[in-house]
Amino acid sequence: MGGQKGFTLIEMMVTLTIMATLAAAALPVVNKYTQRQKEEELHLALRQIREALDEYHKAALSGQVAKATDASGYPAELRLLASGVADITSPNEKMIYFMRRIPRDPFCDCEGRKNEETWKVRSSTAEPDSFDGGKDVYDIRSSSALSGLNGVPYAQW
Question: pLDDT tens-digit profile of 117-138?
């Protein structure tokens, strides 16, 4: 008589059970990794936009960008950082771009919105916790109601 070839049903079931257990154990690790990646994107986007806002403000105060005498010197809209503004000190009024593009809020669950619409903005005259827009863009924050791995809500980063 020949030897047994192949696997029994029991051996297959045990193997599938072990594989399912390993997959279930790995899922939370994968989810945390994905969240950590998005958090890094959020940190980078916040830093880039806030630096661009400061550069715009410096350019406005130095007279390179047109501003009204009673204006703060911050851009009226977030999109101006990427769409550009005229350099009034240049003889041919070349454009100044403070960002290549406005990054999207990685935690915003808002399909169909433009990147600049995924952020909450704060005016220079608004209270520190009031991100309801205004006459200019002084600061931004995430529009997400979720909290980070550190327990701090993304809207407070």
Answer: 999 999 999 998 899 888 999 9
